[in-house]
Amino acid sequence: MNDRFRAGEPAWIELCSTEPHGAEEFYAGLLGWRVRHERLGSGVYRMCSADGRDVAGIAGAGLVHDGRPHGWITYFAVDDVDRSQARAVELGAETLTLPRYLPAAGTGCVMIDPQGAIFGMYSGESRAGVEVANTAGSLCWTELSTGEPRASVEFYRGLFGYGTDVRDSPTGRSYTVLTLDDAPVAGILELESAWPNTLPARWAPYLGVTDLDRAVVQVLALGGSQAIGPVQSPNGAFHVVRDAEGHAFDLIELETGLWISPRLAAPSDRTSTQVSDA
Fold first, then answer.
1. To pair with 127 at 20 to 30 A between CA atoms, which of 8, 96, 229, 232?
2. Order of strands, edge to edge, in the sheet holding 201-208?
3. Is the pTM of this model over 0.85?
4. pLDDT at 129
5. What is the rounded CA–CA span in Å between residue 62 and residue 154?
């Protein structure tokens, strides 16, 4: 496998929570994650794994994000965090967390884009990022919901050099697939008033489940809520839900892969990274 993700690929997802212990219990109960506690400064970072492979992190808001509960953050791989952070600022973003080097992982920062969506950038060293995708409990896709899709597309194209493929979403709204070398890596959805939107715009991960209906019932049993769904897409049925703290994410019963990273693909899959409509 390649040592690192390609610049512009989603490399890591992290939940920034004011109740990290409760978040650990929620997601472990929902997705079967095993959670180990790793020392980070004076606090604890929760590393979450599915079938023994790291898939996400849970961070206390006061530990790394100045007490602000950002919810789910998608970190995109970059070659140089300092240079990419400066470029994002040039394009109109604001810096929430300056580049920080973590010896056990790599260097990362957190930004807010011009439309208000929070995202991160990460250059992996000891840890490249997620260790598996498109399986139960792991990242399957990441998507930006925004009321200003054209401006959002231009921002991320300017930052990461994406190509674009404009499609219709299952809800009939405009949908832009962001691509690297013609392979899909993320999506941008045009919001309408029927969609929940507590921030001007937001990135949210799609997490895989084997039985969507059962998973949504479990969300409710664990204190979460359902928002939109189920929605049938070419890649499988999905449901927008919220955890017990109110942070939105998507559950998908995946039928075909959405984002297929060369770093994570099996040897037989590496010759083809094309996928169906998101």
1. 96
2. 163-168, 174-180, 183-190, 139-146, 201-208, 248-254, 236-242, 225-233
3. yes
4. 93
5. 32
